[in-house]
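Table S2 (continued). Query chain:
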Amino acid sequence: IVVRRDPLPGFDDGWVDHAPVGSFRPNRFGLFDMHGNLWELCADRWGSYELPVREGDGLRLVPEGGSREVINRSSCFAYDERFARCALRNASEPSYRYKSLGVRPARPLADG
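Corresponding output:
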């Protein structure tokens, strides 16, 4: 992993660490700050994509005695642009806290 110490050419957003929510234009879906701001803490436990998913919320069914680690997605300001993608995932202990890790509030889509 390459840790970024100085802004990459063309990527200095003017913030030392993470930028405040809504600092930049939304993407075409109307979503803000999707890549490269903070690692996004997810409820999913670390496990293979081959594991079955739970009915209702889609969380992976990690076997008894499996990993306690949870998934972090999308990378953060401390890494270079190669890591700023939604498919990237990392694992950490549920109690891990750091300035590069955050949450993304979500709500269900309306029926219809």
